[in-house]
Amino acid sequence: MNRKITDIFREKEKTFSLEFFPPKTPKGVEQLYRTADELNKLGPDFVSVTYGAGGSTRGATMEICAEIQKRFDIAVMHHLTCVGHSRSELKAILDQAKANNIRNILSLRGDPPKGVEIWEPAPDGFEYCYQLNDFIRDNYGDFFSVGVAGFPEGHIHCPDKATDTKHLKIKIEHGGEFIITQLFFDNTVYSEYLERLKNEGVQVRVIPGILPITSYEGLLKFCNTCGATVTQEVHDIFKLLSGDEQATAEAGIDFAVRQCKDLLDRGAPGLHFFTLNKTEPVREIWKRLGIK
Ligand SMILES: Cc1cc2nc3c(=O)[nH]c(=O)nc-3n(C[C@H](O)[C@H](O)[C@H](O)COP(=O)(O)OP(=O)(O)OC[C@H]3O[C@@H](n4cnc5c(N)ncnc54)[C@H](O)[C@@H]3O)c2cc1C
Predict the structure, then answer these.
(1) How many other C-beta atoms can be found within 10 angstroms of the C-beta atom of residue 133?
(2) Among the CATH numbers 3.40.1380.20, 3.30.1330.40, 3.20.20.220, 3.40.50.1010, which is that of 5-213+246-289?
(3) Cβ(209) to ligand 1 under 6 A?
(4) Catalytic residue among 19, 67, 153, 284
(5) Cα(110) to centroid(ligand 1), Å
(6) What is the reported pLDDT for 292?
(7) Residue ranges in the chain whose pLDDT is less than 70
(8) Could you give the CA distance from residue 191 to residue 205 in angstroms, rounded to a whole number?
(9) What is the predicted pLDDT for the residue at 1?
(10) Domain boundary assignment for the chain
(11) What does the pLDDT read at residue 116?
């Protein structure tokens, strides 16, 4: 199925979607297709595939998007970053996405490669995501649905939330059609974010990104890089379970179910799950939420 996410929005008030990352080995990729097959039985509205910070998995994003679309007849979204890419390289990737009839792009600036502190655009590349949005619109009209990333707590390198909101508004004015958020664990942060966006006149869907916690140490490491707050409640629950995989996974499912129910009650227009390429947590959360 080669549907645009914005067309799906026209039919559904809430969407439930899954995010995968490209494994590094062919064996890992085959395992991912088995995971996607299992999770596809839940009936997700779309799936997305992340784009590596650099190196070997970048081409794999296209291959996996095309294959998932073909095998499972589901709408896919290709993440794309500006990291290390000139305009002509970005054009070649987008041309290939178009040739594969992939209709959805999550447009991102990306982060500096490992070991590099300061963000620098590539020669003849883009400095900010909104410029990539413009590039997509200028070259492909409305062929692609374009999503952008949102940061309910503010982007780690943005001085304050008000400035972050203004930057997000610019991304939307430059062609972003919906927002998928960074993970967060305190739902009041999401509600306050919606309020800020509403006050700025941003009207697109803001789909919360949900991480089912499966490792306390992994979570601390990730949140340290992306700037998301690990709440006291999360520390209290997961620190004690650290090292016990089974107990952490079960508590992660319980936590996510509570968080998701509350988000849906607050009017969230769906949920986007960071699956970490695992089947079980999302399958169980989906079942307990009664998502049809
Ligand atoms: C749902 C989701 C999926 C992601 N997927 C990936 C992925 O697949 N691959 C990957 O490498 N990374 C991914 N990321 C991480 C993302 O690339 C980083 O967080 C990156 O640092 C910011 O990207 P952005 O597109 O939000 O950048 P931008 O919106 O360009 O913002 C980057 C910084 O510049 C500032 N800024 C933005 N616009 C302006 C402006 N007009 N003027 C001045 N300053 C401005 C912002 O405040 C921010 O501090 C994802 C993030 C999320 C939330």
Answers:
(1) 25
(2) 3.20.20.220
(3) yes
(4) 19
(5) 5
(6) 85
(7) 1, 54-56
(8) 13
(9) 62
(10) 5-213+246-289
(11) 86
